[in-house]
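Researcher: I need the complex structure. Ligand is iron/sulfur cluster. Inputs:
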Amino acid sequence: MSAQVKISSKRIVPEVPLKGLETLWLQVGGTLCNLECTHCFISCGPKNDTIPMMTLAQVRERLEESATLGVKDYYITGGEVFINPEIFEILNLILRYGPLDVLTNGTQITAEKARRLQEIQKASRHPLRFRVSMESFEESANDAIRGKSAYKKAVTGIGHLAEAGFSPILTITRSWEEELDGEMELQFIEFLRANRVPQPQIKILPGFMLGKLAENERPYTDEERVTEACFENFDITQLQCATSRMATGEGVYVCPILVDNPMARMGNTIEETLRPFPLSHPACYTCRVTGMTCKSST
Ligand code: SF4
Ligand code: SF4
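Model: Output:
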């Protein structure tokens, strides 16, 4: 049974404890992105500077703090991380602290950048991994969501990463019925093989009815909320917010999903966020129902 918290005269919601801070996310790309995907749950795009990119100095500050709190691994995301002008210095710095997963749309990765990434990996004792997001192994279906030429550029980026010895994990937001996952997975693995990725892997994410997806498809309904009953047979500490936090250029948030939501901003520093969080947002319902985590391994 989870702890409860009263958030209004009519609503009591479960509260997720912070079991231990294992993972630190850093939104180094802010909400800026070179693409404008029709399902982006934080509505990132070339003009969205709601949350600024993180500077190297800000990243350093959060890393120094994380080292005192026992963080084991790091993830960076955006927006698009490769439009941050300090990205290579940021990668070098994070890898001094621990393993790093980089979430990217892959469209900015040239042969020259991939070679620099290879050098960075060679100089580090910690692994550097990439997750490249796409929608489909078919160009027209991919570009209908991600925009013109996004497919060709991402495939080129994946190829450069593979040539540099990386095995990028392909990340896809599910746009098909869940029972077709197995079939889709095989096709995506085949797509990666055809693009010379040494160890093909994919990660399928559920859609969050937020941002562009809420505008273009539908927002959450009133029934889609977590309640005490949701955690009768589910360990609440399996949710990723029980073991991670999300640092940005303007504060620390509970998780990567609610990063542009003021109620999810828990403090200015990580230290200020070391407390339970009330699961009052409808997106928490998606996490509970799908058991999803933004991390690469599960
Ligand atoms: S889904 Fe990813 S690639 Fe697409 S606009 Fe959002 S941040 Fe950019
Ligand atoms: S959206 Fe998911 S990860 Fe974020 S606070 Fe809610 S349950 Fe936790």
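Model: Summary of the prediction. The chain is about 30% helix and 15% strand.
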